Backbone:
């Protein structure tokens, strides 16, 4: 598949959404609402659930499944209150020593005037900075589209998984095409030059794991994903809280390609 | 010798800097006068964009600046259309290697580490080098127990470096947090324009956020917001005054008063016993 075909697959409307993964991966989930500041953003679903025998905090971006839920969820574009809810739940997880699992699927943070008024940039900045300082394990899974800062705000993790056809990009290929060639129709070319596929992420160390997709056997696929999560959480359980924070910093510290005279 | 005279005239006009027009009121002023006024329009007070070196000169004690990490250069590792060309042109235009200048300095006698972004260099977008230099600035400051003063101006992440540029947001944020956890001060001066991934990371992570009057500060571009919201936006939307009103910055300080304000803040955060080399 080309990068553009993967982009289309990542955005396909029948693709399972964040909430579907939550339901399949975790048992006895209790959803927790609100950022305690302004409101409750339906684009982000969060709570506590059991991953096997381990209680975990889950935070999932959810695009919705029909026109009503998609409208209510802004098509999976979180607002500042969504990111702040996510951060609140992450801090709570840290207090109780719970691992955090984030499911990421967004074109990007919501770009409305209300989001700007309530500090979209500040909300994302705060999430990223505080995630870099968490003393519990954090695993982020890009299940569909990883749209720039709006995705990174839930993906500054110890480990990042990419679904086979998920994409992760600094800018939407449409946006890139219109800047580069003043032609948003050249999405396919933009997708290529931006390097957005799971294989690209693995190559550059942005993601540790590529998860095979099998949506026709979704429960089986999630069972396998659960095994991978449990394996990684067991490995990270060997690390002290400080080591968890330190190794996360080192993971991101190494990113950058440049020359030094 | 009329030929020689006309030649001299030609050279004079070629060498004499062209006047600078205010971006707000359009009044033209001789370059020398505008620069002396710190690029603040003498007629309407508009704060025009300023290059990194001029900013440093206008902010720090004379002769106190010692540049750091100047030998880092960007690479076109994705062979991205037009990137190599863009880098070369930006270098020629600015005389800088990249979009941020870092170093140690004294402000009103107070030691600090500075990073100053230069919007003339590919809109000071953040690629590997910008991310690395700012990260090193925080690491250096943390190691020496020094405060960081950061002048931000940026179009956001550098698309030409793809996902690697996005990762710089987390890298810098991690360094900011480590510097902060050690009890060190970080003051951000938000300059025109601070947008995208830079707003969504280290620009908003300061202990104290100062903005220049009228500076554009936001996450999404105005046009994108208009298309999304489909309503007219207030005139001062995403301007420093708008952010102050909505509680997202601490204060707005005119350029001429910045050195004094920064010196006072640095003095008030002085640690009792620092060993400054
Ligand atoms: Zn003017």
Residues:
């Amino acid at each position: 598949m080309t990068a553009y075909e993967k982009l289309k697959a990542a955005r396909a409307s029948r693709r399972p959404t964040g909430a579907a993964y939550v339901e399949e991966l975790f048992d006895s989930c209790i959803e927790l609402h609100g950022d305690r500041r302004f409101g409750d953003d339906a684009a982000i679903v969060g709570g506590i659930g059991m991953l096997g025998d381990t209680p975990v905090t889950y935070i999932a971006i959810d695009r919705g499944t029909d026109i009503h839920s998609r409208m209510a969820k802004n098509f999976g574009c979180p607002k500042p209150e969504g990111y702040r809810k996510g951060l609140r739940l992450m801090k709570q997880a840290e207090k109780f020593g719970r691992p955090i699992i984030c499911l990421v699927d967004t074109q990007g943070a919501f770009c409305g005037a209300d989001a700007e008024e309530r500090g979209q940039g500040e909300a994302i900045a705060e999430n990223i900075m505080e995630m870099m300082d968490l003393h519990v394990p954090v695993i982020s899974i890009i299940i569909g589209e990883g749209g720039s800062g709006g995705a990174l705000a839930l993906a500054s993790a110890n480990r990042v998984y990419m679904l086979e056809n998920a994409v992760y990009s600094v800018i939407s290929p449409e946006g890139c095409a219109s800047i580069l060639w003043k032609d948003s129709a050249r999405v396919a070319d933009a997708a290529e030059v931006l390097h957005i596929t799971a294989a690209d992420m693995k190559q550059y160390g942005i993601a540790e794991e590529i998860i095979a997709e099998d949506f026709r056997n979704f429960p089986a696929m999630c069972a396998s994903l659960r095994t991978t999560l449990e394996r990684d959480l067991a490995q990270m359980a060997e690390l002290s809280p400080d080591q968890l924070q330190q190794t996360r910093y080192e993971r991101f510290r190494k990113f950058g390609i440049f020359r030094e005279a | 010798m009329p030929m020689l005279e006309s030649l001299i005239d030609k050279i004079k006009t070629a060498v004499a800097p062209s006047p600078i027009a205010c971006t707000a009121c359009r009044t033209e002023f001789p370059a020398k006068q505008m620069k002396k006024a710190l690029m603040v329009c003498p007629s309407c007070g508009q704060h025009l964009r300023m290059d990194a070196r001029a900013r440093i000169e206008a902010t720090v004690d004379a002769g106190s600046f010692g540049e750091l990490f100047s030998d880092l250069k960007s690479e076109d590792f994705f062979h991205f259309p037009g990137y190599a060309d863009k880098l070369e042109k930006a270098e020629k235009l600015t005389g800088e290697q990249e979009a941020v200048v870092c170093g140690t300095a004294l402000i009103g006698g107070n030691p600090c580490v500075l990073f100053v972004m230069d919007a003339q260099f590919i809109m000071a977008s953040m690629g590997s080098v910008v991310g690395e230099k700012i990260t090193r600035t925080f690491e250096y400051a943390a190691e020496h127990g020094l405060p960081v003063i950061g002048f931000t101006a940026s179009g956001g992440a550098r698309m030409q470096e793809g996902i690697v540029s996005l990762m710089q947001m987390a890298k810098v944020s991690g360094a900011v947090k480590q510097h902060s956890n050690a009890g060190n001060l970080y003051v951000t001066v938000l300059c025109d324009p601070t947008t995208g991934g830079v707003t969504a990371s280290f620009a908003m992570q300061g202990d104290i956020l100062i903005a220049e009057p009228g500076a554009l500060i936001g996450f999404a571009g105005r046009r994108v917001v208009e298309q999304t919201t489909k309503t007219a936006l207030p005139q001062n939307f995403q301007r420093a005054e708008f952010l102050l009103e909505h509680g997202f910055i601490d204060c707005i300080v005119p350029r001429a008063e910045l050195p004094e304000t920064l010196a006072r803040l640095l003095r008030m955060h002085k640690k009792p016993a620092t060993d400054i080399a």
